[in-house]
Queue: 3 jobs
Job 1
Amino acid sequence: ALIVAGSYGKMGAAILSARSCLRSGAGLLTVHIPKCGYEVMQAALPEAMVMTDFNSSFISGVDADLSRFDAIGIGPGLGTASETKSMLRELLRSSSKPVVLDADALNLVAADSDSLKLIPGGSIITPHPKEFERLFGTTTDDFSRVELARKRALELGVIIVLKGHHSFIAIPGETGYYNPTGNAGMATAGSGDVLTGILTALLAQGYSPKEAALLGVYLHGLAGDLAADRLSMEAMIAGDITAHLPEAFLSLAISSGGM
């Protein structure tokens, strides 16, 4: 898996995403980050391989053969520099496989609507309501937003995870799915970065985009529910979601008769 993330002052987002990716079964993870984050990433996550950008404060280009990666996640802590915007366009143009787009990657796409057409088919985008509005326009109510998500998912050929208390997953050509797990305590900084890592890891293991989206969002919410049970919704932080991923996987294995 490859995760492209981070900028000066936002390296925590890259670490959160990378850690959850490894905790979700990615066998080998490479993280592309700006030079300013090299020491902190190597110290915080020795299991990850690190590529540093030419730029010290933000990402300006990914000088790597993208075909060697089974999945790419991009966006956490990325920033919105003009050079980063150009990098994103080139990455989307060059990728032959689905990608996961979140956070600043979505903000960059929203600022350059032509980039929407460059997103590879089968990709997963994970906007919260405000990001969704920047991408696709305003809606009058939740029902209208869900209908718009279904419409745009079909038009673009991508999966849209509309994040919320019970996230809605719009699959191209299907009715869509509401996720039953998750709680209000997960509305905390970095929670979306954790989800990006989970989805990237599942795609890298060969799950179809639909399977990755449904399972990933479910696991993310389940880990958050386990964290809330032990720590309270009020005290939960994003890292607690990742910390409870092992228990979430074990819970799924037991319920399916795997243990």
Note: The chain is about 45% helix and 10% strand.
Job 2
Amino acid sequence: VPTVSKVTYKSTTIAGKAEKGSTVYVYNGSKYIGKATVDSKGNYKIKISKQKKGSSLKLYAKDKAGNKSKYCYTKVY
């Protein structure tokens, strides 16, 4: 399950940690917002458009073998 830093309504990136080499996807409800590949140190950074305050974002990681993690939820502050 990826970790995620605090996201505010001014944020244009989401950062956090996940399994090296996996891809992290982020959604606002069922709307796809973005994805990024996790680097060799386990960090990722996803460029996003600004989200509304109070929105709930969900993220998950998918590794090279196609295994999908559980969802990680974060609120937009």
Note: The chain has a mean pLDDT of 97.
Job 3
Amino acid sequence: MANHKRGTIYVGVTSNLLQRAYQHCEGTVDGFTKRYRCKRLVWFELQGTMEQAILREKRLKAGSRAKKIVLIEAANPDWLDLYDSIVG
């Protein structure tokens, strides 16, 4: 999640991407994304199990901001909100 192109980035894990992205977009959950208005789903990655997802989240969070930007821009160079594309 991000608030705008090259803005604040939030990395998280969920078992329900649609629901969680919606909650962030609507600001229904207090915390980091609400405080920094991270309402754009700019990148996501699916994992086979929750354990794999949590491990990947930890690796991403431990990585640099620059590495996160490279991941986002490789798939979404304009930092478009991908929520509508997954609602389908």
Note: Residues 50-62 form the longest helix (13 residues).
